[in-house]
């Protein structure tokens, strides 16, 4: 069993993060993808999932946020988010061929970073993760700057308070000082807003590819806020 790159927890947030930031790049390295030929993505998704999770972990369930009594299973959520991001995500390395779950790897020309114009497709199975939540930005005092851009992590949470999410992320992660929350924005369609903000910053060359973690950008709080306000209006 391979070691998980992020701490496991049976939540929608974990399943989304793992599928988007860790599964998609690994899926793109599988033989079916690198062959350049069309292939059935779900079969490859199941293979990658099996490398990281036990049956017991996959069978764990967590409560849906906006549907009382409804539960989602970790295995189903991982498969859903991986398929969903592969199909519509601007970060997806794949082209959806529109039939029978078939995909192919994007060519170098096709795989360009684009800002998200809009993502209005309904998410039928996991609509709760697309509802209201917090987009947040944090950094550390040692790298913070007053005026110039500096490394800022931009993520989201569906929890009631951002502090729990941010401090929980950094606990035991090798950081030597307390994170500083620089901004928070309560938005609807929280994962879509996060995707749009990331895509705009990537298109502007702000993404820090070799950062010790996901979602780090060399930017400013005012730049992030202006993007959020533009998308929300």
TrEMBL record:
Pfam families: T5orf172 (PF10544)
Ranges of residues in domain Bacteriophage T5 Orf172 DNA-binding: 146-231
Source species, domain of life: Bacteria
UniProt-listed InterPro entries: Phage_T5_Orf172_DNA-bd
Protein name: T5orf172 domain-containing protein
The organism of origin for this protein: Herminiimonas fonticola
